[in-house]
């Protein structure tokens, strides 16, 4: 059996590590394997949920500082001790900034009208990839995980993070480092079934008064690009559900309505983002293998190939 080493997860903003790959990170850490999260921006342009923290929206430096603290709490919940911002180690004061986005409807995001001067999407791929390659050389991971080519739902920073990650993997190949690359994904059929289950009475009961201002996703509508027909790898979420939901709650400016749900097939939790659309937590967190071998994942309980 091949030994299993470290994992590096590359994400665009604080909260993405939890929403996209939280179960994998918690499972990997619980198995005693090294886990590193690299965050490309501090989420300066994120929308803010709730009146208590509304004053942070539009104040980039203040929101960035607050989201750094949220990220630290979320990583602690997941059991992740190693974190780096992608712009660390650059010129003093230089930051890769959240590029922002515009909701296009049907759960998709597009490019914002006004981009900051140092927007992450404007950073040349090779420049950002060189920074990430340094992280990979230092950690020597067996596994690198990020988004699929469309970034899950089209967010420009997610798409750029995907491109940067894939280029960084190319760069470290020259140093004979060849990690297995995973892209976060979910089966479309499972998403549609979970969307339907969100309309059930148990969800309404769990949310209480908070259910009233949340919209249900359309189970027959367009799916985000994270949806695929087949998966290569599955991570069982239930054993680490408490850790993942705690990490979601830590991102209070971005996530609300976090609940554990039991007794409904294909649905073990729910949450909502700033678009106020209820989203499911599925029993399985899925991945496609973009490069490398699945056998390097052997030995981590709860992580299994999909036949």
Automatic annotation (TrEMBL):
Q: Name one Pfam family in it.
A: PIG-L
Offer an example of a GO molecular function term for this protein.
hydrolase activity, acting on carbon-nitrogen (but not peptide) bonds, in linear amides
Q: Report which superkingdom the organism of origin falls in.
A: Bacteria
Q: Which UniProt keywords apply?
A: Zinc
Which residues lie in coiled coils? none
Q: Which InterPro entries does this UniProt record tie to the protein?
A: GlcNAc_PI_deacetylase-related, LmbE-like_dom_sf
GO process annotations (BP): glycoside metabolic process
Q: What is this protein called?
A: 1D-myo-inositol 2-acetamido-2-deoxy-alpha-D-glucopyranoside deacetylase
User: What organism is recorded for this protein?
Assistant: Cellulomonas algicola
């Amino acid at each position: 059996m091949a030994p299993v080493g470290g994992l590096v997860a590359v994400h665009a903003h604080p909260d993405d590590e939890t929403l996209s790959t939280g179960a994998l990170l918690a499972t990997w850490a619980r198995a005693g394997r090294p886990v590193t999260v690299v965050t490309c921006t501090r989420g300066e342009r994120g929308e803010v949920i709730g009146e208590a923290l509304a004053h942070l929206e539009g104040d980039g430096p203040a929101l960035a500082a607050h989201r750094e603290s949220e990220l630290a709490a979320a990583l602690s919940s997941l059991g992740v001790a190693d974190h780096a911002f992608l712009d660390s180690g650059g010129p003093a004061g230089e930051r890769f900034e959240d590029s922002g986005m515009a909701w296009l409807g049907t759960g998709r995001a597009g490019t914002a009208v006004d981009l900051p001067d140092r927007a992450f999407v404007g950073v040349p791929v090779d420049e950002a990839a060189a920074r990430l390659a340094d992280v990979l050389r230092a950690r020597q991971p067996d596994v690198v995980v990020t988004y699929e080519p469309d970034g899950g739902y089209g967010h420009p920073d997610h798409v750029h993070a995907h491109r940067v990650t894939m280029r960084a993997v190319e760069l470290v190949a020259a140093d004979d480092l060849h990690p297995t690359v995973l892209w976060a994904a979910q089966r479309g059929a499972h998403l549609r079934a979970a969307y339907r289950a969100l309309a059930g009475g148990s969800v309404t009961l769990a949310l209480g008064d908070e259910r009233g201002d949340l919209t249900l996703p359309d189970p027959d509508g367009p799916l985000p690009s994270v949806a695929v027909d087949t998966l290569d790898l599955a991570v069982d979420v239930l054993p680490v559900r408490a850790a993942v939901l705690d990490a979601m709650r830590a991102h209070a400016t971005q996530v609300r309505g976090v609940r554990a749900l039991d007794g409904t097939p294909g649905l073990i939790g729910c949450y909502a983002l700033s678009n106020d659309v209820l989203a499911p937590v599925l029993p399985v967190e899925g991945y496609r293998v973009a490069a490398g071998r699945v056998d390097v994942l052997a030995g981590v309980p709860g992580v299994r190939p999909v036949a």
